[in-house]
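User: Design a sequence. Structure:
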């Protein structure tokens, strides 16, 4: 809800610690993506890799590339860095 109040491209980076596995609505991920500057990053860790594919696919549609930086799948999960490559214009 708070992302609605923030201007676009206002953050260089965001850390999402063990939240994106909770099936966050695509609209909310889009709002998060909107506030990150081009060249900015989103660092996210995923509990036992739950939601990685879904979130990575959504973010790729909004101009982000993904890099896996840590893999502790069995015990903890993985850490990814998403870098915003381009601005996006959602359709609709």
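Assistant: Done.
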């Amino acid at each position: 809800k708070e992302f609605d109040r923030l201007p676009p491209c206002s953050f260089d980076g965001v850390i999402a610690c063990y939240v994106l596995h909770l099936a966050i609505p695509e609209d909310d991920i889009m709002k998060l993506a909107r506030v990150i500057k081009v060249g900015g990053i989103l660092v996210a860790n995923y509990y036992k890799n739950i939601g990685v594919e879904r979130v990575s696919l959504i973010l790729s549609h909004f101009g982000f590339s993904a890099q896996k930086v840590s893999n502790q799948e069995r015990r903890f999960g993985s850490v990814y860095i998403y870098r915003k490559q381009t601005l996006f214009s959602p359709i609709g």
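Strands lie at 11-17, 36-47, 64-72, 77-84. The CA atoms of residues 14 and 91 lie 24 Å apart.
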